[in-house]
Amino acid sequence: MTSPLTSAPSSQERWSPRLWGTLLVLCAAMFLDALDVSMVGVALPSIGSDLGLTTSALQWVVSGYILGYGGLLLLGGRAADLLGRRRVFLFALGVFALASLLGGLVASGPLLIASRFIKGLSAAFTAPAGLSIITTTFAEGPVRNRALSIYTTCAATGFSMGLVLSGLLTEASWRLTMLLPAPIAVAALLLGLRLIPHSAKEEGHRGYDVPGAVTGTVAMLLLVFTVVQAPDAGWGSARTLLSFLAVAVLLTVFVRIERRSPAPLIRLGVLRSGSQIRAQLGAMTFFGSYVSFQFLATLYLQSLLGWSALSMALAFLPAGALVALSSTKVGSVVDRFGTPRVIAVGFASMVAGYALFLRIDLHSAYAAAILPTMLLIGAACALVFPSLNIQATNGVDDDEQGMVSGLLNTSVQVGGALFLAVVTAVVTAGSPGEGATPDAVLDSYRPGLMVVTAIAAAGLLISLTGLRGRRPQQTLVVTGSPGAAREETRETAGARVPVRD
């Protein structure tokens, strides 16, 4: 199944204005997702004060978005494959715009949290649909690598700009941070109606996997909810343990359903590829370590050093600027060295950046103690995130691009929620309590920073397993769902190996 633009030009030819316009619309949606996540964090104190929300209620302004996003990504990815990527993307983008408008106008905490959940839900459909539109519109190889490097750069740029814009807008009103995405989303929607090519529904699909969709979605929603609530409820509490047990049961049922379904939500044969598994685990450790680092760095800069929200945002700006400046180069780097090497170098840069941050004290100078970490993290983001997207989507049939995109985004969100909860629990366990000296508070942060570094180191070790010597190509027969007969490629120690499922 191909789109009218699938015959994308080679890397030596110029892209048509419509091709650039399509990429611009998709980048705008990814930019909005990242912008929205970063802006709300800075605005939380003002939101709580204006709406009279408690700390626990305020947490759900963030967690509501994560719950909708992380819980429904698998369904969103498969829906794009089955219902049409263009249709799913544009409809979800319209819902995102309406939810943004609602979030800026509400006068109560519950309505604000509901609007955040709806935004997360809509992003769970735009993210995999947008990524799969790119991977089916731009031919695999240099041209797709270039498109994906630009696409993922927009996410990093949106996140960095969100921090700065929120610091500026919150000075006037926190409602502006909620309203800003609405007109951008509407503009992208109008352009998308004209530019995004029509995509057919999956040809010859054998019905819809309703049982798999229900169990998979409920399992992801419960997993994200349990992880988000675990620090407050207690990791060893009966509620948390029973929730994790229920997740395990649901996932077991889900796997059994997928193995028997003629049209599975996730074709499990995809996960028999070593490169695919490395991409998913890499996404979890990469985003989980970064979100956790940002959380601790924000506490350090604002709570201990007394920096303003805007100053803190500007401290992170070099990382985003480095990603933006390198956007046009990453694709060619991947073409030359391959995703395994680029990902490994990026993770090594991230580990080095986190390790350097362990030197901080109460009198650290930005240029000497903080800026090197930001630059190393920026280099890591520029190298790793586009490469993970390329590695996860290469060699996958067009009719499964949405599924793989949803799976990758799920790994990102679950990794972020899981590792942030773990790091928060570590810091909370060592908290000195009220009236503690600044030195004692800083000491309570250090174990969390060590855990962040260890998470990134785990990602580095995972990526290094893809650097083994090349093996000759071979054909591997993999038993999959009944009646399925399709070819995919599998990377075994850096070699592309056809896999039949």
Summary of the model, kept short:
By secondary structure, the protein is mainly α. It has helices spanning 17-51, 55-83, 85-105, 109-137, 142-172, 174-179, 181-195, 210-233, 238-260, 274-304, 309-325, 327-337, 339-357, 366-393, 401-429, 438-464; strands spanning 476-477, 487-492, 495-500.
Describe this structure in words.
The chain is mainly alpha-helical. The chain has 3 domains: 13-200, MFS general substrate transporter like domains (Growth Hormone, Chain: A, Up-down Bundle); 209-262; 273-469, Growth Hormone, Chain: A (Up-down Bundle). The protein has helices at residues 17-51, 55-83, 85-105, 109-137, 142-172, 174-179, 181-195, 210-233, 238-260, 274-304, 309-325, 327-337, 339-357, 366-393, 401-429, 438-464; strands at residues 476-477, 487-492, 495-500. Strands 1-3-2 form a 3-stranded mixed β-sheet. A hairpin with a 2-residue loop joins strand 2 (487-492) and strand 3 (495-500). Helix 5 (142-172) crosses helix 14 and helix 10 packs antiparallel against helix 16 (438-464). The chain starts with 16 loop residues before the first helix and ends with a strand. Its main location: membrane. The chain crosses the membrane at residues 20-45, 57-76, 88-111, 117-138, 150-170, 176-196, 208-228, 240-258, 279-301, 307-326, 338-358, 364-385, 406-429, 449-467. Residues 485-501 have a biased composition (Basic and acidic residues). Residues 478-501 are annotated as: Disordered. It comes from Streptomyces beihaiensis.
